[in-house]
């Protein structure tokens, strides 16, 4: 403690002007120098420091205001996006429901068209079968008729002589004349 009091006592005693030296006593010089420097800094730097702090405060407030505006804009965009999403979801549901009903209508139409086609094919098949049956029956009739006619001609030719033939022709001519008189 004696060193501290000695340093204050030595303040009253200045060394001679011709000599220059360093005071190596840390406790004696540093607190005084620091208090002087801090006092000067506080006195002269208070305005500059206040200006720097005010500028920093204004920049921070400006950044906060900008952030709030950006946040409000983002919230508005989010709400608009949500509204568009709801609208698109509603439209998608409508398209889905319309698509399902359209698919059902198409399915029913295809089934009906297939049934109609099958019915037409069945009718065509039946008509074709009926036509083929009629044609086969007609062919059989023609053959039977031709065979019967050939048999009858053969029988007539073998049984007919000229006189019987002449009488048959005369009778048929008489029948034709009688038919002609009836029609006139």
UniProtKB/TrEMBL annotation:
GO BP: proton motive force-driven ATP synthesis
Protein's job: F(1)F(0) ATP synthase produces ATP from ADP in the presence of a proton or sodium gradient. F-type ATPases consist of two structural domains, F(1) containing the extramembraneous catalytic core and F(0) containing the membrane proton channel, linked together by a central stalk and a peripheral stalk. During catalysis, ATP synthesis in the catalytic domain of F(1) is coupled via a rotary mechanism of the central stalk subunits to proton translocation.
Membrane topology: Single-pass membrane protein
Name recorded for this polypeptide: ATP synthase CF0 subunit I
Keyword terms, alphabetized: ATP synthesis, CF(0), Chloroplast, Coiled coil, Hydrogen ion transport, Ion transport, Membrane, Plastid, Thylakoid, Transmembrane, Transmembrane helix, Transport
Alphabetical list of InterPro entries matching this protein: ATP_synth_b/b'su_bac/chlpt
Family named by the database record: Belongs to the ATPase B chain family.
Subcellular localization: Membrane
Coiled-coil region list: 64-98
UniProt KW Thylakoid keyword: yes
Segments passing through the bilayer: 32-49
Primary gene name: atpF
Molecular-function annotations in GO: proton transmembrane transporter activity
GO cellular component terms listed in the entry, alphabetical order: proton-transporting ATP synthase complex
Superkingdom classification of source: Eukaryota
